[in-house]
Design a protein that fits this description.
With 102 residues, the protein is an alpha+beta fold. The protein has a single domain, classed as Orthogonal Bundle (Endonuclease III, domain 1). The chain is 28% helix and 15% strand. A five-stranded mixed sheet has the order 1-2-3-4-5, with no helix packed on it. The model has no long low-confidence stretch (mean pLDDT 85).
Length: 102
Amino acid sequence: MAKETPDGQYTLEDGLLLYQGRVVVADVDHERTKLIKEAHSQLSTAYPGNTKTITLLAARYYWPGLAPDVRQFIRNCACRASYYARDKTPGLYYLLPVPDHP
């Protein structure tokens, strides 16, 4: 049995507080951090960036400040230490001048 608030955005369903159909996550025992880590560290998603991780979480969960929390987590993630930027190609190689004498 679902109970709805007057504004219609929050509902209580089977003991879960929902906001627009998504589970509201309280900041208790680092549950938010655990959820972010789980979404970001999945083998099937291969350490997605900010946007994809936020999209994955926001589809099912809600808490105020979800996006900044995800960005902060990813900024501090160890996977970023091995990140190699592939978006900019390196410049051209230049030939070294041939010496005139030994």
